[in-house]
């Protein structure tokens, strides 16, 4: 929390160092709190992507050390699949197929989950994720970033008039399910500059009028950002129901799904389409270990895991890390020109890897 506030967001190098400093203690605390030791475990699940390579490495190294020392199989987990599947831990009737809108700091995707490990991506962001827009808005408004920007914007928005600043809803003319938040971010920055709001002056010491201005921007930004989600979700539900008419649920998860305004607005959309919204509690929406353990368990149960690593790993061992790793296969009708995907090396999607492995298995059985 202090690092987030100090650097105004996630600084990769400092994040890696912080991960390295605490990883042993975090794992030990989790075992202690569960009243278990490593000997009681049946497998180790660990996030292998997508995310910051430096931080993924710290986790994978630790997981392989534990698994190697106690001869445990290891399950590599997709971070976004974990955000979606943790909903099945809290909602027992949530069976496949279902839809999921996954909204966090780095990702903004809407998928159709056919079965475990198989996803069709109906939409993604062409630039920033909504969480990034919340974080920057918080930073520019001089809010307390210790809990990340989102909760601070949500709280201040309660004091503001959400119709006072007229931001444009992004991508009104695109008849697809893709998202864009970069333009809205710029609109917010310009509105802040026009009102001469000084981010260096914390909102706690702002004058009444200044605070009111900041709250109006927070509320107006939140309304329009969420309206964008609402419009795209409505269309995505129509598309998904054509592909899989038996869908009954829409999951909304990822850090931004802990926002109460997001939850209530999306609930209206989902109920209008006769589906049920499933939102994990906020503690399971923002990044957490439970979702990774749960997703590991789901794959472990169907035999998808790697054998235990050697107790002593060679020094030159190359870790399987996937910083850019799509979850699903893109739906042809919804192809996006996602900037991040065009510029960097992308790993084949989880869905394509699992499909290839399953068909290989079928071939060897016949
Ligand atoms: O899923 P998450 O914990 O980490 C990533 O995988 O990115 O999501 C973090 C993001 C941050 O951008 C944070 O500002 C946002 O989720 N967030 C929120 C709220 N709580 C967290 N955004 C809006 N309202 C919230 N209450
Ligand atoms: Zn996340």
From TrEMBL:
The UniProt record lists the EC number as: 2.3.1.234
Superkingdom of source: Eukaryota
Q: Which residues form the Gcp-like domain?
A: 3-294
Keyword annotations: Acyltransferase, Metal-binding, Transferase, tRNA processing
What's the catalysed reaction?
L-threonylcarbamoyladenylate + adenosine(37) in tRNA = N(6)-L-threonylcarbamoyladenosine(37) in tRNA + AMP + H(+)
* Pfam families per UniProt: TsaD (PF00814)
Keyword Transmembrane in annotation: no
Q: Which CDD domains match?
A: ASKHA_NBD_OSGEPL1_QRI7_euk
Q: What's the top EC group for this one?
A: transferase
Q: Secretion signal: which residues?
A: none
Enumerate the SUPFAM superfamilies for this protein.
Answer: Actin-like ATPase domain
User: Is tRNA processing there in the keyword field?
Assistant: yes
Query: In its UniProt entry, what is this protein called?
Result: N(6)-L-threonylcarbamoyladenine synthase
Q: Which organism is it from?
A: Brassica cretica
Q: What is the lineage of its organism?
A: Eukaryota, Viridiplantae, Streptophyta, Embryophyta, Tracheophyta
């Amino acid at each position: 929390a202090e690092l987030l506030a100090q650097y105004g967001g996630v600084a990769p190098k400092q994040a890696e160092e912080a991960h390295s400093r605490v990883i042993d203690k975090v794992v030990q605390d989790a075992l202690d709190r569960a009243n278990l030791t490593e000997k009681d475990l049946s497998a180790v699940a660990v996030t292998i992507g997508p995310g910051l390579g430096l931080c993924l490495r710290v986790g994978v190294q630790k997981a392989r050390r534990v698994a190697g020392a106690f001869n445990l199989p290891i399950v590599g987990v997709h971070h976004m699949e974990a955000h979606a599947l943790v909903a099945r831990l809290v909602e027992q009737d949530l069976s496949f197929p279902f839809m999921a809108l996954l909204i966090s700091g780095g990702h903004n995707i809407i998928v159709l989950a056919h079965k475990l490990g198989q996803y069709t991506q109906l939409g993604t962001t062409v630039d920033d994720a909504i969480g990034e827009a919340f974080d920057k808005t918080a930073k520019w408004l001089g809010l307390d970033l210790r809990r990340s920007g989102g909760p601070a914007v949500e709280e201040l928005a309660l004091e503001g008039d959400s119709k006072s600043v007229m931001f444009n809803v992004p991508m009104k003319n695109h008849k697809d399910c893709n998202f864009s938040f970069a333009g809205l971010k710029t609109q917010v920055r310009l509105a802040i500059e026009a009102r001469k709001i000084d981010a260096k002056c914390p909102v706690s010491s702002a004058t009444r009028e200044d605070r009111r201005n900041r709250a109006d921007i927070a509320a107006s930004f939140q309304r329009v950002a969420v309206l964008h989600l609402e419009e795209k979700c409505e269309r995505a539900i129509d598309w998904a129901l054509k592909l899989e008419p038996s869908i009954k649920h829409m999951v909304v998860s990822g850090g931004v799904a802990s926002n109460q305004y997001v939850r209530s607005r999306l609930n209206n959309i989902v109920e209008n389409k006769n589906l049920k919204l499933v939102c994990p509690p906020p503690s399971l929406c923002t990044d957490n270990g439970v979702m990774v353990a749960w997703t590991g368990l789901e794959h472990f149960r169907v035999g998808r895991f790697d054998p235990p690593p050697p107790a002593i790993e060679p020094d030159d061992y190359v870790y399987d890390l996937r910083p850019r790793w799509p979850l699903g296969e893109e739906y042809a009708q919804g192809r996006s020109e996602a900037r991040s995907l065009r510029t960097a090396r992308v790993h084949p999607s989880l869905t394509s890897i699992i499909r290839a492995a399953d068909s290989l298995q079928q071939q060897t059985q016949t």
